[in-house]
């Protein structure tokens, strides 16, 4: 996974377009802006939290910092599956109105870092998606595969974030 982070660091400057880290959930490919990614870690012990939305797996202790983990499969109404050797947690920075909050994204596998220009990005469809279209920044065709580019700040709903933080602070 450190190879992917090195790829991110080496590819985030000096070219036109925006860099996205792509990852898999089921048979679908998604992307998140690399500027929001802090690190990629292997799955570790996740402490469940009571009275959380179903998609919140719990929290992890990452070098003394408590970080909530969201299972994107559950969030996007996909079948849940057991983690394997490729399953990982992508730690991102979610921006709210007044602060930046670290959040873990539980994903099936990390794919690659891709450069996507504005011309490569098409608007999100208004129908037919298994998720709220406000979560989708757009769709991009990369090497013949359509990647759904996520607006990660919109994926994590504000009221859910506040609930997670209030419970995590007492955990």
Classify the beta-strand content into a percent band: 35-45%
Overall tally of domains: 1
Number of H/I helices: 4
Radius of gyration: 16 Å
Shape: globular
Rounded mean pLDDT score: 83
Strand order of the largest sheet: 8-1-2-11-10-9
Fourth CATH level, the homologous superfamily: CheA-289, Domain 4
Q: Considering DSSP H and I runs of 4 or more, what fraction of the residues is helical?
A: 10-25%
**Assembly status:** single chain
At CATH level 2, the architecture is Beta Barrel
In total, how many beta strands?
11
- Measure the end-to-end span: 29 Å
Under CATH at level 1, the class stands as Mainly Beta
Helix/strand/pairing category: alpha+beta
CATH topology: OB fold (Dihydrolipoamide Acetyltransferase, E2P)
Name the descriptors:
5-stranded mixed beta sheet, 171 residues, alpha+beta, 6-stranded mixed beta sheet, OB fold (Dihydrolipoamide Acetyltransferase, E2P)
């Amino acid at each position: 996974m450190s190879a992917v982070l090195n790829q991110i660091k080496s590819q985030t400057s000096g070219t036109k377009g925006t860099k996205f880290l792509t990852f898999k959930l089921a048979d679908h490919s998604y992307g998140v802006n690399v500027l929001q990614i802090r690190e990629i870690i292997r799955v570790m012990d996740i402490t469940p939290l009571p009275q959380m939305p179903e998609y919140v797996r719990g929290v992890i202790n990452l070098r003394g910092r408590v970080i909530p983990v969201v299972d994107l499969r559950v969030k996007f109404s996909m079948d849940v599956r057991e983690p394997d050797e490729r399953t990982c947690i992508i730690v991102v920075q979610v921006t709210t109105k007044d602060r930046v909050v670290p959040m873990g994204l539980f994903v099936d596998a990390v794919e690659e870092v891709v450069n996507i220009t504005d011309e490569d990005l098409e608007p999100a469809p208004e129908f037919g998606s298994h998720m709220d279209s406000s979560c989708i920044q757009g769709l991009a065709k990369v090497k013949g595969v359509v990647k759904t580019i996520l607006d990660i700040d919109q994926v994590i709903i504000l009221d859910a974030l506040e609930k997670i933080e209030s419970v995590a602070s007492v955990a």
